Amino acid sequence: MFTHIKEDIKCVFDRDPAARNWFEVITTYPGIHAIQAHRLSHWFWRKNFKWLAKMLSTVARFGTGIEIHPGATIGRRFFIDHGMGIVIGETAEIGDDCTLYHGVTLGGTSWESGKRHPTLENGVVVGAGAKVLGPIIVRSEARIGSNAVVVKDVPSGASVVGVPGRIVVRKLVEEQSEKRQAIASKMGFDAYGTTYDMPDPVANAVNKMLDHIHAMDEKQEQIYSALKKMGVQIQDVELPELDSCELSDGENKSQQTKKKAENAES
């Protein structure tokens, strides 16, 4: 138990740059107080001292503004930042190295007995004001954005934003980003619509436009090739190449586009 307490305090220094020394953390951080009170109340709960466990949990709630049911299971190196308004239900399960910010609710959606609260696997971060509801599983290293409402399982490493919560698919964005950046460079324009974690509607519209232009470019090449095979004489016009490797060097992309245009004119 003392090992867990030491780990809980040490993880504060890893995740809160405002933490200055051990004495300050132990005496002034309500998240630490709530976690240690819960570890004791959870021990009483498992030993079937239900009233004593609930009473200790209630006292901790008055002192910290954080309500953790003594039946909840919490792993190692759990960090609560600020903490006011956090509610963690009876059947909630929290893995190792998780972080919760103020106003978070790990709540239920049913009055039935049994598992009715969420499970957070290792390394999950839940932003301020987010609500994770029902017997769902938030897989390891997932991120829940501030004020999101999550009622479905979240895959490992995903980010969830909005109401209702929707998954921002990082992998799909990364696969498309090179094509989009290349076609944007060809047009002589820096694509700002390549953000990973924020589904901005304007950025999404720009991304769709770049995808459409790229598809049109490929279709045009196919038409030219077919016409040449039929013997139709078409004047070749040199266009800037869509080479994603060029985008990774140290030159400014706008300068690259200018150089390509000058080469085409010469």
How would you describe the overall organization of this protein?
This protein has 266 residues and is an alpha/beta fold. It folds into 2 domains: 2-168, Hexapeptide repeat proteins (UDP N-Acetylglucosamine Acyltransferase, domain 1); 171-265, no CATH class. Helix content is 42%, strand content 14%. The protein has 7 helices and 15 strands. The strands form 3 sheets. A 6-stranded mixed sheet has the order 3-6-9-12-14-15. Strands 1-4-7-10-13 form a 5-stranded parallel sheet. The protein has a 4-stranded parallel sheet with strand order 2-5-8-11, with no helix packed on it. A hairpin with a 4-residue loop joins strand 14 (159-161) and strand 15. The radius of gyration is 27 Å and the shape is elongated. Mean pLDDT is 79; it is low at 190-197 and 244-254.
